[in-house]
Amino acid sequence: MSYSNAEKLIELCIALGQSKMGMTISEIAERFHVTRRTAERMRDALERLFPSLACKRDHEGLKRWFLPDDVVQPLVRFDAADFAALKASEDMLRRANRSEDASRISQLGEKLRTALSSRAKSRIEPDLEALMQSEGIALRPGPVVRIDPVALDNIRTAILSSRRIRCDLRLQSGRTIEDARLEPYGLLYGLRPYLLAARAGGSGVKQYRLQSISGIALTDDAFERDPGFDIVTFSRGAFGVFQEEPVDVEWHFRPEAAAEAADYVFHPSQELERSADGGLRVRFRAGGLLEMAWHLATWGNAVTVIQPEDFWQRVHEIQVGRWTAVPGETDGEP
């Protein structure tokens, strides 16, 4: 058996041990990017190595394979790269102004280290120190919005339990709605943190800057979530976090910037096309023109906006509108 096949079997063993429902042959094939027949051979090899491999049928009659925890636990090993990834995640969260989540990641790393044997620690720590000295995360300059951890905890509890929150809501006009009731659906993190929520009795989910919401308190009032809401679909309607009416966008990168631009995912719906001059055309559909303009500024004269034709005029109008308003709700003013 080759090293790669042995690694796959160990990975399959861990996957079958951590899955409460077990895995079907089709799911094994999808997980390891192999054919169904290869997935069956992997299962057979695992059964020879671990006679405790068990099978049960789910409510659809599909066979699901699983392993007991006591078989899997001795196979779970950590290396320096695992802990370096945790540390990098902690640093990125902290610089994204998500200090509470960063602390959780830090505590997770400490708990995992505590669970390691002395032998494993002595094996990992020299490599981890070398990795930490050789890798870093670039700082993002600019202001950072403070987030009240108690308020954030209340919001997350409300999201998980589908309960309304009570708060004071400062609108973009400068007017404040006292004792507003919001139905939280999720959070979006960008240059500023946003709450995705519906107003009680309102029309659909909108986004609110967290700094425009104060006095957040959890209520006992339950609400029924819109079953059609999906945060991924919602966020894909924008370039960044600004929710605006989507438009058809097309950019042209000059030949000298085409190779670098091709390495970027500007938007999940993007389509790339090499132009006759050796440049690159990028097409997608989204709102958030001001954030597009901020990003395009980093490319200088290496990029030209083809669509919308009045892009820069629209950006100017958006800037004027936002600079003359009090920061607050972005999309929900009655």
UniProtKB/TrEMBL annotation:
Pfam families: WCX (PF25583), WYL (PF13280)
Lineage: superkingdom: Bacteria
GO molecular function list: DNA binding
Cross-referenced InterPro entries: CBASS_pafABC_assoc_protein, WCX_dom, WYL_dom
Residues in WYL domain copies: 151-216
Residues covered by the WCX domain: 246-317
Keywords assigned by UniProt, alphabetized: DNA-binding
Protein name per the record: Putative DNA-binding transcriptional regulator YafY
Organism, scientific name: Gellertiella hungarica
